Amino acid sequence: MDTRAAMERLGIDPAGYAPILAVSAREIDKRLELCRTALAQGNLADLALHAHTLKSTTSTIGAGQGAQYARSLEHAADAGKLDEAAAHLRDLEKELHEVAVCIQAALRQITTVKPAGPPLRS
């Protein structure tokens, strides 16, 4: 996960990036569960929708590989290829597990590094 590139692209510092990471982690969990449900129900339209959201979310936070897997899942769902979509979802789940680890590490780092404040006046 390229957190530095994501912050540069978004034009924000770590303090601005932390809430985006936190919200993204929750969104990823939610959308991944919705993908599983849609696949189990054979609802490829919903699967494509949730994969598209995962693609956007992972891209925003700098998880390029996750975005690529989500894109592949979205394309398979749009093409009506259920078996292919299932395989892409398995790949995406594995990648998003790694992304979750990276998000937690980034959040720990951001919260332990405090920016220097203004000089103290006596």
Automatic annotation (TrEMBL):
Gene3D superfamilies: HPT domain. Pfam families: Hpt. Residues 13-110 form the HPt domain. InterPro entries: HPT_dom_sf, Sig_transdc_His_kin_Hpt_dom. The modification Phosphohistidine is found at H52. GO terms for biological process: phosphorelay signal transduction system. GO terms for molecular function: protein kinase activity. Keywords: Phosphoprotein. This is Hpt domain-containing protein. It comes from Desulfolutivibrio sulfodismutans.
